[in-house]
Amino acid sequence: MRLPLRFGRGRDDQPWRQEFPYAIDADEAIGRRHFLTLAVLTSGAVLLGTVGLALRGLSDDRRRGSPRAIGRADALEVGEAAYFTYPGADDGAVVVRLGADRFVAYSQKCTHLSCAVRYRPEKRDLHCPCHEGVFDIETGEPVAGPPRRRLPRIALRQEGSMLIALEEAP
Amino acid sequence: MNGRGPRALKPPVRPARPSPAPGRRSLVLAAVILGALMLALQLWLLTTALDLYLAGEGGSVWQLAAASAIVFAGGVLALLLTRSQEPPA
């Protein structure tokens, strides 16, 4: 049995046409136009989000922290790491001694989902145990796993035997 | 039964519209497909902008915002064009 899905123009005088006055073709055309209108509105919303990020990028300086002593440099052997908090009391960080006078420090917060990364001395990298993210110890750049951004780096200065954390920069 | 008798039939909301002219449907369909593609491009621009912002390189997000604005302007233009092609109700 064939369903009367396609309504011809010559049937406008039928009683059922008065009760259901839509041509199925016209309905499709209306749907597409409405979809296009919604797409343009969504496009405007996405544009607003991008412009908002651009505005925040101009005004927001994401460097954090002030100079603070984090420990004695000679307490670390070459290839060893120590954990401290910087810039806030809840912000975990790790400092690694790479050479006699070479220290690097990073935030422990993984750039994937903010788990705490740990230093692996046997592989000389920083490892996030949540999703197996790995960061290069020299640069903080992601080298494996889901992270796509480098770890925030903490600038250091050595004053005598003391290590001073200067600021954290993304 | 609620005792109120048979319900009156509603009057037609609006008269039946004729089928679109040949070619008009293709035009609207092309605009819709192009709009969906452009929307996907805009979403990609937004995620890239967010990535740059979180990486501390927010100064270069303006270029992405400008590209997104061009896409939006194109969408508005396409919408206006299809509206101008719409048959009178």
Give an overview of the whole structure.
- The complex is a heterodimer of chains A (170) and B (89).
- Chain A has 170 residues and is an alpha+beta fold.
- Chain A folds into two domains: 9-59; 68-169, Rieske [2Fe-2S] iron-sulphur domain (Rieske Iron-sulfur Protein), CATH 2.102.10.10.
- Chain A is built from two helices and ten strands.
- Chain A has helices spanning 15-19, 24-59; strands at residues 68-72, 81-85, 92-97, 103-107, 118-120, 125-128, 133-136, 142-144, 153-159, 162-169.
- In chain A, the strands form two sheets. Chain A has a six-stranded antiparallel beta sheet with strand order 1-10-9-4-3-2, with no helix packed on it. Chain A has a four-stranded antiparallel beta sheet with strand order 5-6-7-8, with no helix packed on it.
- By secondary structure, chain B is an all-alpha fold.
- Chain B has a domain at 34-85.
- Chain B contains two helices and no strands.
- The longest helix of chain B has 31 residues, at 24-54.
- The two termini of chain B are 40 Å apart.
- At the A-B interface, helix 1 and helix 2 of A face helix 1 and helix 2 of B.
Explain briefly what this protein structure is.
Chain A is an alpha+beta fold and 170 residues long. Chain A has helices spanning 15-19, 24-59; strands spanning 68-72, 81-85, 92-97, 103-107, 118-120, 125-128, 133-136, 142-144, 153-159, 162-169.
Oligomer: heterodimer
Helix content estimate of chain A: 10-25%
What series of H and E elements makes up the topology of chain A?
HHEEEEEEEEEE
Q: Any idea what the CATH superfamily of the largest domain in chain A is called?
A: Rieske [2Fe-2S] iron-sulphur domain
**Average pLDDT level of chain A:** 85
Low-confidence stretches of chain B: none
Low-pLDDT runs of chain A: none
Number of strands of chain A: 10
Number of strands of chain B: 0
Report the sheet-strand fraction of chain B.
under 5%
Distance between the termini of chain B: 40 Å
Number of helices of chain B: 2
Largest sheet of chain A: 6 strands, antiparallel
Order of helices and strands of chain B: HH
User: What would the principal axes of the Cα set say about the shape of chain A?
Assistant: elongated
Helix residue percentage of chain B: 55-70%
Overall 3D shape of chain B: elongated
Largest interface, chains and sizes: A-B, 42 and 52 residues
